[in-house]
Design brief:
homodimer, Farnesyl Diphosphate Synthase, two-stranded antiparallel ribbon, globular
């Protein structure tokens, strides 16, 4: 079957599940619920939740068993996008071809929606753990990994350092690596591991998934930076060229090296999957799709 | 023993536990960790974590068994204070007698610190669940209650409606009740129930704790509004009179009625404890202490 078709199908499953698991917009207080839905249901590639489902599939489980965990990861991701776009951070007027959440609503509502989405994500992981009777240790581990992926040692720390070095032209490669591994790769890793943990996967099976997801996350971020530097806003769905003055892999190493690096990370992601005994086709197609966006 | 002395002793236990369970400020990236500690360790009465410990005590358990859950509740509370103080919300320059977190650091760092504190809180509940071997169902229930207390049906919703009606002079009592029960009482309830749930308390024992905490939360908020309307900034530790233009129980019903209502809620809180078979002295002293602040 055609790769893009499969990804579109997966995306539709995730979209529907997200729409179901979020609070309805006609519930009081309506405006905050509308903001939560606006921030989450506004399109996007849904790669992270698809990874959650694909990782479960690769371990021989029905991907539907972890759809709630998949939605949780997407809620966390959308929450981080709302914050990234705020005036005090990237000050982005658009996201996914529409006004960013704080432009559509207001800054306070956007911040509160982001706050809610985090807790909503935690609630979804808990529900998923109950659904699959994951046991206390597995549930605790899955929540802890999600919490760590978001916190100051993960996405929060990555975003913080990213803002700290903005405008600084002499950023060392270690700092860049720190930002990219925390800001992007950490949630990819939580996506690949979270659902699998709820389904009882042991460390031996989680380890290749972690390596795969870390490399994929790094590749994805580089491709995203390439698209920003070179892409067409119509296709990318948000303003391009807004990283001018920001430090990215592309500004530090140049486009050619960045393309090579992205390809290298995707290659390593495939090698990690070689160590996983299972049906890894979906995970491989996601990796190839990420890379193909840069061409 | 003197009530205030006992509360001070409890406060010291919570302060020390909080200082231990937060990321050290010399960990990279330092500034975000400093902001997290600044937002959390800046004083405060620590009533909510003391309630967590006192509820465990009332059920016959060692309060130390739920100190991590107590810290989790305080992290959530401090996270909400950071958001409340933001320019897009109350725009408060000071908190607890010091610059508010976004004034001491910057808006982006404050928002990220608040985000981290939420996830840190979830991690602490998980750790506590593991420590006391609470089992999957109890752990899931405790996390779900905390998550619900924070989300759009709880504190986020309360703060949202509070901002929505700001400046509106004709707020109906139902809206006021909505705001106060969500913005303040919901976390008091999660505090009274959370640790108890981890220790295996059933609904029959949780129910009086819930009623107690809901009434105490409502009384506490009214007293807080009275202090803002009439108190001295030196004693209150933050600017007073800043609710001018905001809708509070005091602005809607007047000071005399507000004092009566607070006393009434504390009385009902005591009556709820009458239905609890256990050593409820500490919980009662907390309730009386809350009321005494208004005199």
């Amino acid at each position: 079957m055609d790769v893009l078709y499969v990804l579109e199908e997966e995306k539709a499953i995730v979209e529907q599940a997200l729409a179901r698991c979020l609070p309805a917009s006609d519930v009081h207080p309506r405006r905050i619920h509308e903001a939560i839905r606006y921030a989450t249901l506004g399109g996007g590639k849904r790669l992270r939740p698809i990874i959650v489902r694909a990782a479960a599939g690769a371990l021989g489980h029905d991907p539907d068993l972890v759809t709630k965990a998949a939605c949780a990861v997407e809620c966390v991701h959308c929450s981080s996008l709302v914050l990234d776009d705020l005036p005090s951070m990237d000050d982005a007027p658009t996201r996914r071809g529409r006004p960013s959440t704080h432009r559509q609503f207001d800054v306070a509502t956007a911040i509160l929606a982001a706050h809610d989405l985090l807790m909503h994500a935690v609630g979804l992981v808990v529900e998923n753990g109950i659904d699959v009777a994951s046991g206390q240790r597995a549930l605790a581990k899955a929540i802890r990994e999600l919490s760590a992926a978001v916190g100051a040692g993960g996405m929060v720390g990555g975003q913080h350092v990213d803002l700290e070095v903005a405008g600084d032209s002499a950023v060392d490669p270690e700092t860049l690596e720190y930002i990219q591994s925390r800001k992007t790769a950490s949630l990819f890793v939580a996506a690949a591991r979270g659902g699998a943990i709820l389904l009882g996967a042991d460390e031996a099976r989680l380890e290749p998934l972690s390596d795969y997801a870390r490399c994929l996350g790094l590749a994805y971020q580089i491709v995203d930076d390439l698209l920003d530097a070179e892409g067409d806003p119509e296709t990318v769905g948000k303003e391009t060229g807004k990283d001018a003055g920001r430090i990215t892999f592309v500004t530090v190493h140049g486009s050619a090296t960045a393309k090579d690096a992205a390809a290298g990370f995707v290659r390593t992601a495939h090698e990690a999957l070689d160590r996983l005994d299972g049906e890894t086709r979906m995970l491989r197609e996601i990796a190839d799709f990420c890379l193909s966006r840069s061409h």
